[in-house]
Specification:
With 162 residues, the protein is of the alpha+beta class. The protein has helices spanning 13-17, 21-30, 45-51, 61-68, 83-91, 104-108, 123-133, 146-159; strands at 5-11, 34-41, 73-80, 117-119. The protein binds adenosine-3',5'-cyclic-monophosphate.
Length: 162
Amino acid sequence: MKPEERTFVAIKPDGVKRGLIGKIIERFENKGFKIVGMKLLQVTPELAAKHYEEHQGKSFYKRLIYYITSAPIVAMVIQGYNAVESVRHIVGATSPLNADVGTIRADFAQIMEYNVVHASDSITSAEREIGIYFKPEEIYDNWQSMQELIAYDEERYNQQGL
Ligand code: CMP
């Protein structure tokens, strides 16, 4: 089996202000993904410019920077099999109008400018975006999934004849 991947997800200011943090995180946890990094932070204009450098010069760029710095975001590193592509499926198309029903953007957003979440679009972008928001020591994957945890305990119980 190929190794797990990591991707970067941000709950944007509209998601935080509307009280959707729990509902959004639930979607990723329901899928079985591990959240290995998470923080609430106020994005500075400098940080926003780094994150969205590929959009510099586009018609929506200035509004995008204003919006992403307007209130805190929740930044996350999500780990699992095919995490980049799979998380993009859960998040849905950039425009909520085109997002499939059942995706976060279809279910919680109305327009592109306020599309509630950001998710990396490739493994390369994920590595870059994780590096912008997280130091290596802020990522914790040294805890077990439920399945691994049960298997570990089972082995110990057997060893002790319990
Ligand atoms: P996100 O996935 O964070 O990546 C860039 C963001 O720019 C996008 O989601 C939208 O929130 C925002 N945006 C605003 N207008 C546009 C547009 N016309 N095309 C693409 N993205 C846009």
